[in-house]
Specification:
alpha/beta; 15 helices
């Protein structure tokens, strides 16, 4: 009797996404699908600890632009003093809001909306150019880190302030940790990942990009993030919870380390529970009044909005902690020239892949711990 041919993990992932995401995204799914299956775009996270003048010149010679700096123009347009009164209602809620001020007020600084000092260069929409690998300078520091530019957005949303004590709960491989350090605001940064091999990679990344005096403020650990709320409760000003997920783009493109392999079925089914436990732990580790950003690189509502909703409910019932989910809709206005956003997220924001700007998926949602 002939055995049924084995279905590859990539094929199984795509079948799963076709079934679930065609319902979630409707007519948008075919466009997202073809983009997921196409080569993704990269951004170059600028290393402020390198030769700034030289690296800036190299990146600008490639006709790449800092998409974060470009968004300053949007901030100026959103300011009522600039005469755009119709924008006011769109950005008048949440801590990232541009407040309605008198006509004499200057345009708000971008640093009042997002984490400061982060620079990330991208090529314009429709430009599929690639960045060359970064080269070490005279002291061995690399000038930029290549990553999906959308992965910088959760760090921007965290709105890090000078002197903040920060936890990156699921830090490896290190792109977001490196972005946090670029702010120059971290009093101390705890970078944790449950995998010892992944924290080894994180260590190597940081040694390639930051000088020893900056490395001294980083504490790298390999612990179970679900226990952090017990180990270091009420400790951090800002917490980033970038959880393990189905890594949708990887799952349809690569067989290696694919969570849709048959032997990982149980792990995949338990992902939403793991994500929930990590998010709750992150909120418990934050100080009262602290802020937490939850993020995934999945399109799945079960791993995104549903996890946030359940965490808010659980924190209220089990721990008597009130959490407010913040409005991040201004991110769509700020960065619409670089990314394609899904317009119908109930909570948080979702960057969806699009052939003209093939970044993402990247979901991010900000929570403010009130007590």
């Amino acid at each position: 009797m002939a055995t049924r041919p084995k279905i590859s993990a990539k094929r199984l992932a795509l079948q799963n996404f076709d079934m679930n995401y065609s319902m979630q995204f409707g007519s948008l799914w075919p466009s997202i699908r073809v983009s997921l299956l196409s080569e993704k775009k990269y951004g170059a996270l600028f290393n402020n600890f390198s030769n700034i003048e030289q690296i800036t010149q190299e990146l600008e010679c490639l006709n790449a632009v800092d998409f974060i700096l470009e968004s300053q123009k949007v901030v100026q347009d959103l300011n009522p003093a600039a005469g755009h009164q119709d924008s006011e209602s769109a950005v008048s809620t949440g801590p990232l809001a541009v407040p309605a001020k008198s006509q004499a007020q200057p345009p708000p600084s971008l640093s009042t909306l997002i984490s400061p000092n982060i620079k990330c260069y991208t090529f314009p929409k429709g430009d599929i150019s690639l960045f060359p690998p970064a080269r070490p300078d005279t002291i061995g520091i690399l000038g930029y880190y290549l990553l999906d530019a959308a992965s910088v957005l959760p760090v921007l949303a965290l709105n890090v302030q000078p002197g903040d004590f920060i936890l990156d709960l699921c830090a490896a491989p290190g792109g977001k940790t490196l972005a946090l350090l670029q702010t120059g605001c971290c009093r101390e940064l705890a970078a944790n990942d449950v995998s010892i091999s992944r924290t080894g990679r994180l260590n190597r990344v940081l040694h390639s990009y930051i000088p020893p005096n900056v490395y001294d403020i980083v504490r790298i650990t390999s612990g179970d993030g679900r226990k952090w709320g017990d180990l270091e409760a009420n400790t951090y000003d800002r917490v980033l919870v970038d959880v393990p997920c189905t890594t949708d783009r990887h799952s349809v493109m690569e067989e290696d380390d694919n969570i849709f392999k048959s032997m990982r079925k149980g792990e995949r089914q338990m992902l939403p529970m793991l994500q929930l436990e990590l998010l709750v732990s992150g909120v418990l580790a934050a100080k009262p009044g602290g802020e937490v950003v939850y993020s995934t690189c999945s399109l799945s509502q079960l791993q995104n909005e549903y996890v946030v909703e359940r965490a808010v409910e659980l924190l209220n019932i089990q721990y008597n902690i009130e959490v407010r989910v913040e409005d991040l809709s201004i991110f769509r206005r700020l960065f619409q020239d670089t990314f394609t956003f899904f317009p119908n997220c109930r909570l948080g924001e979702l960057v969806v892949p699009h052939l003209s700007s093939n970044f993402g998926p990247m979901y991010f949602c900000k929570l403010h711990r009130l007590g």
